[in-house]
Amino acid sequence: MLRRCFNRLASKTLRDGTVLEGTFAGTHLVDGTARFKDGRVFTGTFSSGTGQPLPKTRLLEDGDTYVGEFNSQWQRSGLGASFLADGTTYEGFFEADELVNGIVTVPDPTGEIVFEGTLKDEQFVEGTLKQNNYVYEGEFQDNTPHGKGKLEYDSGAVHEGTFFKGKLHGDKCKMKLDSGFVYLGSFVHGAIQRGELRTATFNYE
After folding, report:
1. 173, 138, 134, 139: which is closest to 157 by C-alpha?
2. Which of 117, 71, 127 has the alpha carbon at shortest distance from 95?
3. Can you give the pTM of this predicted structure?
C-alpha cells in the first residue's frame, strides 16, 4: 500500500518560479501558500491529487481578494466573492476569472450602487440596478440602460419601454412624471415626439 508522505512547513520552488510553502502530500502542497511570479498568492487548502486550490482558498492579486472556487487553470471559476481594493465587491458565479452572474456592489458618495444580474466582460448585460434615488430593471450596454427596461424613481416617476444610452427612445414607451401626468407614445432621446398625454382632468392625443 502506497503511503503519502506529509512534511510540515516545507518549501518548494517550481521551474516556473512558483514558490510553495506549507504541508505537502507527496509532491503536492495540501495546506499553505502558493506564490506565483506574476504576483498572485493563493492561501488555503489544495488537492492532494492534483495540487489545485480547493473551494474557499484565498487569492490575493494587486490588492484585491477572492475567496471561492477555482478551475484547473487556477482561475476564479464557480461560486465565490471578490473584494476589490477600492471597496467594490463581486459575489456570485465566476467563469475564467470573471463574474458572469451575481451581485456587484460599488461604493458611492451618495450611497451604494448595487447591480444584480448577468454580466459579460465585467459589463452589465441584464438585471436590476439600484442607485441613490432610482431602480432600473432591464437590459444594459456599457453599464447604462439600453434596450427594454423600466426605470422607477423614489419620487414616483416612471420611464418604461425601450432605452438608448439611458434615455427612452422608440415606439410604445411610457413616461410618468412626478405630477402624475403620463406620456404614451414615441420618444427620441428622452423626449416624446408623438402620442398621448393623460392627466387627471383630460387626455390629449
Report:
1. 134
2. 71
3. 0.87
**N residues, the chain:** 205
Q: What is the DSSP letter of 185?
A: E
Higher pLDDT, 167 or 199: 167
Instruction: Give the mean pLDDT of 126-155.
Output: 96
Contacts 24+ apart (CB under 8 A), 132-135: 132/108
Beta strands in 88-181 (DSSP E): 89-95, 98-106, 113-120, 123-131, 134-141, 144-153, 158-164, 167-168, 170-176
pLDDT value at 2 more than 50: no
Rounded CA separation 187/175 (Å)? 9
pLDDT over 90 percentage in the chain: 81
What is the distance of C-alpha 107 from the center of its chain?
A: 14
What's the distance, CA 113 to chain centroid?
12
